Amino acid sequence: xxxxxxxxxxxxxxxxxxxxxxxxxxxxxxxxxxxxxxxxxxxxxxxxxxxxxxxxxxxxxxxxxxxxxxxxxxxxxxxxxxxxxxxxxxxxxxxxxxxxxxxxxxxxxxxxxxxxxxxxxxxxxxxxxxxxxxxxxxxxxxxxxxxxxxxxxxxxxxxxxxxxxxxxxxxxxxxxxxxxxxxxxxxxxxxxxxxxxxxxxxxxxxxxxxxxxxxxxxxxxxxxxxxxxxxxxxxxxxxxxxxxxxxxxxxxxxxxxxxxxxxxxxxxxxxxxxxxxxxxxxxxxxxxxxxxxxxxxxxxxxxxxxxxxxxxxxxxxxxxxxxxxxxxxxxxxxxxxxxxxxxxxxxxxxxxxxxxxxxxxxxxxxxxxxxxxxxxxxxxxxxxxxxxxxxxxxxxxxxxxxxxxxxxxxxxxxxxxxxxxxxxxxxxxxxxxxxxxxxxxxxxxxxxxx
Length: 450
Fold this sequence. Notes:
Radius of gyration: 23 Å
Shape: globular
Distance between the termini: 34 Å
Strand order of the largest sheet: 4-11-10-9-8-5-6-7
Strand content: 5-15%
Largest sheet: 8 strands, mixed
Structural class: alpha/beta
Number of helices: 15
Order of helices and strands: HHHEEEHHEHEHEEHEHEEHEHHHEHEEEH
Helix content: 25-40%
């Protein structure tokens, strides 16, 4: 079961630490099954309850996952595994449509904005004790939130959207709490939740966002929080419409204690309007705890590592308090540079959303012409349901296309492929669709739903 590796330890903490170290060192691999409780207990000469406690620790730390009678195994992307270890190999000459990156050609130049930020730092260096946020950036973000109907709230700056979500979860939830998330959904989020010891309750979605009935079921099952991607949902491209937002608010109104996190990472790269779940036209929140996050990664560049969020005072205060205890603040150089980019190029840089829409549209039309259903209402990704992922990924690779298998994005949803179209020329779409049709053959029939 574990090959030549033998787990060591007498206490639960020792057993858990040994497994975690072995995973980090590559001696135990993602997906590898662990011995049954009683079998390992007998081998180590300990009580089965000790092994059970060790497995609970490993599960809470995001190292293993358990499936009842099917046993426990190392998570496909355990917390102790470097991200580089799970990247797809891209052969020379192949088109990489798996990375999820924006098109570098559509990112604004950083040098002028960084020069403005550096000059400001030369005039007045930021020292310890300086306010955590840059007034110009906060003013621009607040105006954007107001224009999109978000309630007035406290504001903060974090090192990206995932950092914001991470801090909110850490300060608002406890290990064992359940979180409702989109399925399929952002794989970094699927890895983050078990690292906090949180349980996942999948919510089905379509092109308009989470399905109300599925959300209602997750909330009835005890979800303490809901995380929704407003636009450019990863991996499906779903975008919450005004009608769907109203339906979801109705469901949330019956659960006012649920923590709501809206991730609008697609802000700046999509032509579709923002529709918030937090409140209706009267701007009164339907839940007591809420946060809306907007990242600079897709519109201005992933390396900026910056997001601005707003939320209720208590939730944001806790986040800022936790932030003061570790990183302290997000670099004012980055904050000022982002503010300058925002002023110079706008919240939605000219032509970017339209370019991505054209590329998505070209692929969706080409797929439909070959009887293949794709999903991609917004953003840089298209999701294609398939009967089986491995054969489709390998078949496309043999034809020079690298796409992401859906397994890393799914909890209970059917198989699919994520195709990043950010730098896919519309003229390439027919060839890609034709190659996918050849790979799938007649098996595409029935693979229609997200």
